[in-house]
Write a structure and sequence with these properties.
Elements: E1 6-7, E2 11-15, E3 24-28, E4 31-35, E5 39-45, E6 51-57, E7 62-67, E8 75-81, H1 83-105, E9 113-118, H2 130-133, H3 135-139, E10 142-148, E11 151-154, E12 167-172, H4 174-186
Antiparallel strand pairs: 1-4, 2-3, 4-5, 5-6, 6-7, 7-8, 9-12, 10-11, 10-12
Pfam family, one: KhtT_N
Domain RCK C-terminal: 102-186
GO molecular function: monoatomic cation transmembrane transporter activity
Length: 187
């Protein structure tokens, strides 16, 4: 991996502070390195000095990579991921951060909570739209974002079509959120 890295502009991410609170913003520079004949490596440095990232192969395969602590160019671990596994990992990493940030922002609003609501493969709303749920009308809950494959889609319109694996980020009362979850499970 000797190609000179091309550094993207810093990507701002909301990261939990050392004291467990959210709201601190760190700039993480993601380096994009072409790997001739292989694909592209995208990675960034952790506080520990290790680098973590993905290699996207020309044939579409994806590998999660972690560098050795004493040599950021040497690979300690390489885990091949299917598209479904990469999507699940992205959702695990993306949705909780967004929910933590929104929870912190709504902390001083009594009675308002933020929750992740999954669209499971057996959901009656897999392949249907947000408008089909009538969630806001039926529960008073607002869907403020949908996380799909680690990518947040803020302020989805009623025409936004759900796919199994999506995670809805919803804001409302505890009762409303429970009812919203029931709607997604039962229709």
């Amino acid at each position: 991996m000797s190609s000179a890295p091309f550094c993207l502009a810093g990507t701002a991410v909301a990261a939990p502070g050392r004291n467990g609170q959210t709201g601190n913003v760190e700039i993480v520079n993601v380096e994009v390195t072409p790997l001739p004949g292989i694909g592209v490596r995208k990675d960034f440095a952790l506080r520990s000095g290790r680098r973590i990232g993905v290699v996207t192969h020309r044939d579409g395969q994806t590998e999660l990579i972690v560098s050795k602590s004493d040599d950021p160019d040497a690979c300690l671990a390489s885990l091949p991921l299917t598209a479904e596994e990469a999507s699940a990992l992205a959702n695990l990493l993306g949705a909780p951060q967004l929910v933590a940030q929104l929870t912190e922002e709504h902390r001083d609003l009594p009675g308002i909570s933020t929750r992740q609501l999954p669209i499971k493969s057996n959901s009656v709303f897999d392949g249907r739209t947000l408008g089909d749920t009538a969630m806001r009308t039926r529960t008073g809950v607002s869907v403020v974002a949908v996380v799909r494959a680690g990518q947040a889609h803020p302020s989805p319109t009623p025409e936004f079509t759900f796919t199994a694996g999506d995670v809805l980020v919803a804001v409302g009362t505890s009762e409303g959120l429970e009812n919203a979850l029931k709607i997604l499970k039962n229709g």
